[in-house]
Amino acid sequence: MDKMKAENMLERYCALIIGILFLVLGVAGFIPGLVSLPGTTASYIPPEASHSAYTLGFGNIFGLFPTNFLHNIVRCTVGLLGIASYTSLISARLFNRVFVVAYTLLAIMGVLPFAKTFFGLMPLFGNNVFVNALTALAAAYYGIVIPAKVTDTGVARNL
Q1: Alpha carbon distance, N-terminus to C-terminus of the chain
Q2: Residue 121 and residue 71: Cα distance in Å, rounded?
Q3: With 70 as the cut, is the pLDDT of residue 117 above it?
Q4: Mean per-residue pLDDT over the chain, rounded
């Protein structure tokens, strides 16, 4: 029983860590000193120079992760949901499983030429593909594989 309790806490911690990671990335995207435009000294495209929702606040967080204002809002929302889901096992399990599906799709979309900007709304390309894929993989392991091992059911039955 103690092993099951420990594994349940791992699932909850996974949701918490993913939540903190995405909240930090989302908030960092709103701080001009942490965002840069490739090839310039500007931090991001200012609102008055933006011609579309995609270019509004476009830049790279820490010079690595392409972002815009909409993407920052999505990251903050996912982060807050992950942190809030830590409060119970059921909500953490639901968060992890929905996260796996959504962020696996986003990682795939990031490598497709016609969908890498989420159809003109937010950037999914570059290092975002790796972040999305690795966090989806971690959520899959701690949210699906580990619980299946603990309960001695197959992964397919645990979905």
Answers
A1: 21
A2: 8
A3: yes
A4: 87
Which single residue is written with the structure tokens 């806490």? 9
How confident is the model at residue 145, as a pLDDT? 84
Does the pTM surpass 0.70? The reply is: yes
How far apart (Å, rounded) are the C-alpha atoms in residues 40 and 23? 26
What number of other Cβ atoms are within 10 A of residue 23's Cβ? 19
Residues 28 and 34 sit within 8 Å (Cβ to Cβ): yes
Is residue 130 within 8 Å of residue 66, measured between CB atoms?
no
HEC assignment per residue over the chain: CHHHHHHHHHHHHHHHHHHHHHHHHHHHCCCHHHEECCCCCCCCCCHHHCCCCCCCCCEEECCCEEECHHHHHHHHHHHHHHHHHCCCHHHHHHHHHHHHHHHHHHHHHHHCCCCCCCCCCCCCCCHHHHHHHHHHHHHHHHHHHHHHHHCCCCHHHHC
Residue 125: both structure tokens together: 């390309």
- Within 8 A by CB and 6+ apart from 26, the residues are 72, 73, 74, 75, 76, 77, 78, 79
Q: What is the pLDDT of residues 85-110, one digit of tens each?
A: 999 999 999 999 999 999 999 999 99
